[in-house]
Amino acid sequence: MASSYSTRSLFYLLFLSFSFIPTHSTTFEILNNCPYTVWAAASPGGGRGLDHGQTWNLSVNPGTTSGRIWGRTGCNFDASGHGDCLTGNCTGGLECTGWGTPPNTLAEFALNQFTNLDFYDISLVDGFNIPMDITPLNSKCAKSSCTADINGQCPKVLKVPGGCNNPCTLFKTDEYCCFKGPGSCAPTAYSRFFLVRCPDAYSFPRDGPTTTFICPTGSNYRVVFCPSRSSLVNLEMPASL
Known about the structure:
By secondary structure, this protein is an alpha+beta fold. The chain contains 5 helices and 15 strands.
């Protein structure tokens, strides 16, 4: 009898859990506010070229994890969408598949996770190429952003055409990449360079919890490239592009 009651209770709890999982998709409004074309990319989602002021509305399924949105610069695609980009390049050409090649600023997200929460952040773990922010649209949840002139101030050893590498990409050691898990690495002078300029963003793989933001599931989000006009002073398209 006890076993039967426990089984019924378990099925009831599972029913309640699944009954509260949203069935509608989440919309990401991706806006290019940069004074140059940005080829937006998303995983899942693909890609699209955005001139200044253009928007791409992307629908993402509930329960999606390890999602990311980024911008590609210096792209050259033919009529069939084949081609490459200077920063943020990915397989699939214009219709991007997989993840981008560093350096690329990332808006990361995981939707409808435990206790019906969305998790999102701006990450510099893959370096920086374009200032970005991500903002929940229909809630009072906080915005995550990185709008500093990282490219203009990038340490010489990390600087590449069109962007600024994270040291993990360059050195590929546990000191910077935290390959051995929690406690295997700590902030470095390079990660502090990113952290000081963008305190809301992930600066290295084991950054603190203050760089992860949460919002109740059901919100939609806006991702903006070059969100702050004041951040554009030194962010015109580099001559190398």
